Amino acid sequence: MQPTSTPLSPDARPDWRGVRTVAQTLNDFRTCIAVLVFYLIDAGLMALFCAFGAGNWASPMWIAGTGLVVAGGGAVLVHRFGGGRLDDPRLVIVQAGSALVVTLGVALFDPPLMALMLMTVIVIIPTAALRLAPGGLLSLCMVAAVASFAVVAAHGGRLTIPADTAAQQALSGMFLLWTLVKGASINLAGMALRMELNDSHERLAAALLRVEQLAERDELTGLPNRRRMQAALAEERERCSRNGVSFSVAMLDIDHFKRINDLYGHPMGDAVLRSVAQLMRTALRKPDLVGRVGGEEFLMILPGAARLEEAKHVVERVRAAIEGNDWSATRADLQVTASIGVAVGEPGESVESLFDRADRGLYLAKQGGRNQVAADTPRPH
């Protein structure tokens, strides 16, 4: 016995929003860890400066403590409220402000390290820029600039860097290299955000295109639906009016389609509709357009078919293709035919009038015995 599949109930379907939330939470935790690592590396370098006679031991302790508070506080918020909290501009301001306070504090109270700390300020601002709006970023830049100027002024305008010994020079070079690494990591993070934003835009554009296609396509046959065909008809009418040419339209109705549904069931009727749609696509010319505009009714737009004989010749191929199809492959006793009404557009004629004349032509084809092509000529003005 073959196993059967049961559609998932709404409660049993995967909650993709929950999956995205978990991913965001994990990403935020990784961000907190990265922030802590950055602070600890800064503190470690400051400790090495102190060990080689440049700086106060309070500086690395202050930096490490601030890192623990900032990263730990962020982790607590993520754990309690879930992912996405680190993007809150207010929290970004707090984090950037904390980094500025500790950095400029070290520069103020530990003069030998002042120039190195001011280099760090240059890294803090771009980090905040990744998640702040222009107004908030401008305010942060102004505060950082004023505070940095005040620190330099407090020391008489002198910028000092540890370089008295070879070890201090090497450490200063290491700190500069580390600052460049931090700047590069910020640039990479910005690139990742831009790529993610571009991907989001592309996915949104694809989704909107898909929605638009679904709104203009018949789900069963894959043909344009009535809404799309009405728009296409108006567009072709406008194009022909501009260029001084004409075109034709044709309405097709599957003969005795209700009987097919009643005798063989709606699944068989759906199969017939799909087959007829495919036969029409194959029989029509390349520039022609066909769509399903009703239950068993199809509309054909025939660009360039300015004469009735030409239009009849095109749609006669469609009728013959449906009649001549081997329907026994679908059901042994099944035979399908179609009636078609055709009309050639007249100068200045409205879309509604042309559509109505094609529909009257279809009526004439049915009245004449079905499985034929008929035309309704324009009525004299």
TrEMBL record:
Catalysed reaction, written as an equation: 2 GTP = 3',3'-c-di-GMP + 2 diphosphate
SMART domains, per the entry: GGDEF
UniProt entry tagged with the keyword Transferase: no
Enzyme class: transferase
Transmembrane segments: 33-55, 61-79, 91-108, 114-130, 137-155, 175-193
Protein's UniProt keywords contain Heme: no
InterPro entries given in the database record: Diguanylate_Cyclase (IPR050469), GGDEF_dom (IPR000160), Nucleotide_cyclase (IPR029787), Rev_trsase/Diguanyl_cyclase (IPR043128)
Keywords: Membrane, Transmembrane, Transmembrane helix
UniProt xrefs under SUPFAM superfamilies: Nucleotide cyclase
EC number(s) reported in the record: 2.7.7.65
NCBIfam families: GGDEF (TIGR00254)
Protein name: diguanylate cyclase
UniProt organism field: Leptothrix cholodnii (strain ATCC 51168 / LMG 8142 / SP-6) (Leptothrix discophora (strain SP-6))
